[in-house]
Amino acid sequence: MNRTLLLAWITAIVAVLGSLSFSELLHFVPCTLCWYQRVLMYPLAFILGIAFFYNEQSVYRYVLPFSVIGMILSVYHYTLQKVPAFKKFESCTSGVPCSGEYINWAGFITIPLLAFICFTIITLSMGLLYKQRKP
Protein backbone atom coordinates (compact mmCIF):
# COMPACT_ATOMS: atom_id res chain seq x y z
CA MET A 1 0.00 0.00 0.00
CA ASN A 2 1.41 3.36 -1.03
CA ARG A 3 0.61 5.86 1.72
CA THR A 4 1.55 8.81 -0.48
CA LEU A 5 -1.06 7.87 -3.07
CA LEU A 6 -3.58 7.19 -0.32
CA LEU A 7 -3.01 10.65 1.23
CA ALA A 8 -3.45 12.35 -2.16
CA TRP A 9 -6.59 10.33 -2.91
CA ILE A 10 -8.18 11.01 0.49
CA THR A 11 -7.38 14.71 0.11
CA ALA A 12 -9.10 14.81 -3.29
CA ILE A 13 -12.14 12.98 -1.90
CA VAL A 14 -12.39 15.38 1.06
CA ALA A 15 -12.12 18.35 -1.31
CA VAL A 16 -14.87 17.01 -3.58
CA LEU A 17 -17.17 16.16 -0.68
CA GLY A 18 -16.50 19.54 0.95
CA SER A 19 -17.26 21.40 -2.27
CA LEU A 20 -20.45 19.43 -2.80
CA SER A 21 -21.46 20.05 0.83
CA PHE A 22 -21.01 23.79 0.42
CA SER A 23 -23.12 23.90 -2.73
CA GLU A 24 -25.72 21.18 -2.17
CA LEU A 25 -26.24 21.22 1.59
CA LEU A 26 -25.46 24.84 2.47
CA HIS A 27 -26.72 26.16 -0.89
CA PHE A 28 -23.65 28.30 -1.60
CA VAL A 29 -23.70 29.16 -5.30
CA PRO A 30 -20.19 28.63 -6.75
CA CYS A 31 -18.60 31.58 -8.53
CA THR A 32 -16.78 31.19 -11.85
CA LEU A 33 -13.37 30.60 -10.25
CA CYS A 34 -14.89 28.04 -7.88
CA TRP A 35 -16.20 26.15 -10.92
CA TYR A 36 -12.75 26.15 -12.50
CA GLN A 37 -11.24 24.80 -9.29
CA ARG A 38 -13.89 22.08 -9.24
CA VAL A 39 -13.05 21.16 -12.84
CA LEU A 40 -9.44 20.66 -11.74
CA MET A 41 -10.18 18.82 -8.47
CA TYR A 42 -13.04 16.44 -9.30
CA PRO A 43 -11.13 14.31 -11.84
CA LEU A 44 -8.29 13.92 -9.33
CA ALA A 45 -10.57 11.93 -7.02
CA PHE A 46 -11.02 9.35 -9.79
CA ILE A 47 -7.48 9.43 -11.19
CA LEU A 48 -5.88 9.09 -7.76
CA GLY A 49 -8.35 6.37 -6.71
CA ILE A 50 -7.51 4.26 -9.75
CA ALA A 51 -3.80 4.93 -9.25
CA PHE A 52 -4.04 3.85 -5.61
CA PHE A 53 -5.81 0.57 -6.40
CA TYR A 54 -3.35 -0.28 -9.19
CA ASN A 55 -0.36 1.17 -7.30
CA GLU A 56 0.45 3.30 -10.33
CA GLN A 57 3.65 5.13 -9.40
CA SER A 58 3.78 7.29 -12.52
CA VAL A 59 0.42 8.99 -11.90
CA TYR A 60 2.26 12.17 -10.91
CA ARG A 61 2.66 12.86 -14.64
CA TYR A 62 -1.10 13.22 -15.00
CA VAL A 63 -1.94 14.75 -11.63
CA LEU A 64 0.66 17.51 -11.35
CA PRO A 65 -0.72 19.68 -14.17
CA PHE A 66 -4.16 19.64 -12.51
CA SER A 67 -2.87 20.29 -8.99
CA VAL A 68 -0.33 22.99 -9.87
CA ILE A 69 -2.83 24.92 -12.01
CA GLY A 70 -5.36 24.48 -9.18
CA MET A 71 -2.87 25.95 -6.70
CA ILE A 72 -2.27 28.97 -8.93
CA LEU A 73 -5.98 29.51 -9.49
CA SER A 74 -6.73 29.18 -5.76
CA VAL A 75 -4.07 31.73 -4.84
CA TYR A 76 -5.48 34.15 -7.42
CA HIS A 77 -9.00 33.60 -6.08
CA TYR A 78 -7.89 34.04 -2.47
CA THR A 79 -6.03 37.23 -3.41
CA LEU A 80 -9.20 38.61 -5.01
CA GLN A 81 -10.99 38.02 -1.71
CA LYS A 82 -8.37 39.34 0.69
CA VAL A 83 -6.50 42.12 -1.13
CA PRO A 84 -8.79 45.05 -1.94
CA ALA A 85 -6.49 46.36 -4.70
CA PHE A 86 -6.99 43.12 -6.66
CA LYS A 87 -10.78 43.47 -6.86
CA LYS A 88 -10.34 45.56 -10.01
CA PHE A 89 -8.83 42.44 -11.68
CA GLU A 90 -11.89 40.33 -10.90
CA SER A 91 -12.90 38.16 -13.84
CA CYS A 92 -16.37 37.21 -12.60
CA THR A 93 -18.81 39.37 -14.52
CA SER A 94 -22.10 37.59 -13.86
CA GLY A 95 -23.61 35.66 -11.00
CA VAL A 96 -21.79 35.39 -7.68
CA PRO A 97 -18.74 37.68 -7.40
CA CYS A 98 -15.44 35.85 -7.04
CA SER A 99 -14.40 38.29 -4.33
CA GLY A 100 -17.36 37.25 -2.16
CA GLU A 101 -16.75 35.15 0.94
CA TYR A 102 -19.30 32.57 2.03
CA ILE A 103 -17.10 31.52 4.91
CA ASN A 104 -14.40 33.43 6.74
CA TRP A 105 -13.28 31.24 9.62
CA ALA A 106 -10.73 32.81 12.00
CA GLY A 107 -10.64 35.86 9.73
CA PHE A 108 -8.64 34.22 6.94
CA ILE A 109 -9.92 30.72 6.09
CA THR A 110 -12.10 30.92 2.99
CA ILE A 111 -13.17 28.35 0.41
CA PRO A 112 -10.30 29.21 -2.01
CA LEU A 113 -7.80 28.79 0.84
CA LEU A 114 -9.25 25.35 1.59
CA ALA A 115 -8.92 24.47 -2.10
CA PHE A 116 -5.33 25.75 -2.10
CA ILE A 117 -4.47 23.56 0.89
CA CYS A 118 -5.92 20.48 -0.83
CA PHE A 119 -4.17 21.20 -4.14
CA THR A 120 -0.92 21.75 -2.22
CA ILE A 121 -1.19 18.47 -0.32
CA ILE A 122 -1.81 16.65 -3.60
CA THR A 123 1.09 18.45 -5.31
CA LEU A 124 3.48 17.64 -2.46
CA SER A 125 2.30 14.02 -2.45
CA MET A 126 3.00 13.78 -6.17
CA GLY A 127 6.45 15.29 -5.58
CA LEU A 128 7.13 12.59 -2.98
CA LEU A 129 5.84 9.95 -5.35
CA TYR A 130 8.19 11.24 -8.04
CA LYS A 131 11.09 11.11 -5.58
CA GLN A 132 10.20 7.53 -4.49
CA ARG A 133 10.04 6.15 -8.02
CA LYS A 134 12.43 3.44 -9.00
CA PRO A 135 14.71 4.27 -11.95
UniProtKB/TrEMBL annotation:
PANTHER family the UniProt entry points to: DISULFIDE FORMATION PROTEIN-RELATED, SPBETA PROPHAGE-DERIVED DISULFIDE BOND FORMATION PROTEIN B
Transmembrane segments: 39-55, 62-79, 105-130
Similarity-based family: Belongs to the DsbB family. BdbC subfamily.
Protein name (record): Disulfide bond formation protein B
Entry GO MF terms: protein-disulfide reductase activity
Localization of this protein: Membrane
GO cellular component: plasma membrane
GO BP terms, alphabetized: protein folding
Keywords: Chaperone, Disulfide bond, Electron transport, Membrane, Oxidoreductase, Redox-active center, Transmembrane, Transmembrane helix, Transport
Topology of this chain in the membrane: Multi-pass membrane protein
InterPro entries attached to this UniProt entry: DiS_bond_form_DsbB/BdbC (IPR003752), Disulphide_bond_form_BdbC (IPR012187), DsbB-like_sf (IPR023380)
Domain of life: Bacteria
